[in-house]
Design a protein that fits this description.
By secondary structure, the protein is mostly helical. It has nine helices and two strands. β1 (43-44) and β2 (47-48) form a beta hairpin.
Length: 199
């Protein structure tokens, strides 16, 4: 039942973040998000639109849901924007997790980090220390993402018993890697422009 609700919430948030704001006021943006949630229940050949999306992207990690919720709240002007350094560190953190996990699961490495997620005590300790460090650095977005994933794993809100499935998923990993690539290209172009002007 939780997975079905997660599918509907994921559907609404993904579309809300992909659609332009259309210059809508805060109240109309909230209404748009609720309308997209209602659209997710529309049946098509016996399945809801949210179920169709879920069949392609599977259940998203808790961190992804928190990240998208933060993005939605930002678009509705409920939360202030995160500092660029904090957002970049979030991108780096989850890109590293994805690059550590998915190439190995595809057989590109002899090490299989996914199996560590079934008995995750060392991972839980490491993530707890990492979360404390990020809290000290006041990167509250990363703190909420990691703490939310850990709490959800302890409670067991997903059918998976693997900690990795709460921490990262392909959608989040791909987004973080692409966002970092865009930032790197922008930084390179900026440096080249500075060098040209100084020359």
């Amino acid at each position: 039942m939780i997975n079905l609700w997660q599918a509907h919430i994921s559907f609404a948030m993904i579309l809300f973040l992909l659609l332009p704001s259309f210059g809508l006021s805060k109240a109309w943006r909230v209404a748009l998000l609720l309308a997209l949630l209602a659209v997710s229940f529309i049946p098509l050949d016996g399945l809801t639109l949210a179920a169709y999306l879920r069949s392609h992207i599977d259940d998203l990690a808790v961190t992804t849901l928190v990240f998208m919720a933060w993005g939605c709240l930002r678009r509705m002007d409920v939360l202030p924007p995160a500092q660029q350094g904090q957002k970049t560190s979030v991108l780096i953190l989850f890109a590293v997790m994805a690059l550590a996990l998915y190439p190995a699961t595809l057989g590109l490495s002899d090490l299989d980090p996914y199996r560590f997620g079934f008995s995750p005590r060392p991972m839980l300790v490491f993530v707890a220390l990492l979360t404390l460090g990020l809290f000290y650095l006041r990167n509250y977005l990363a703190v909420v993402m990691l703490a939310g994933a850990t709490l959800a794993f302890v409670v067991g809100i997903k059918p998976s018993h693997n900690y990795w499935d709460y921490l990262v998923d392909p959608l989040l990993g791909l987004y973080c890697c692409l966002a970092l690539l865009v930032l790197a290209i922008g930084w390179i172009y900026g440096r080249l422009g500075t060098l040209r002007r100084s020359a």
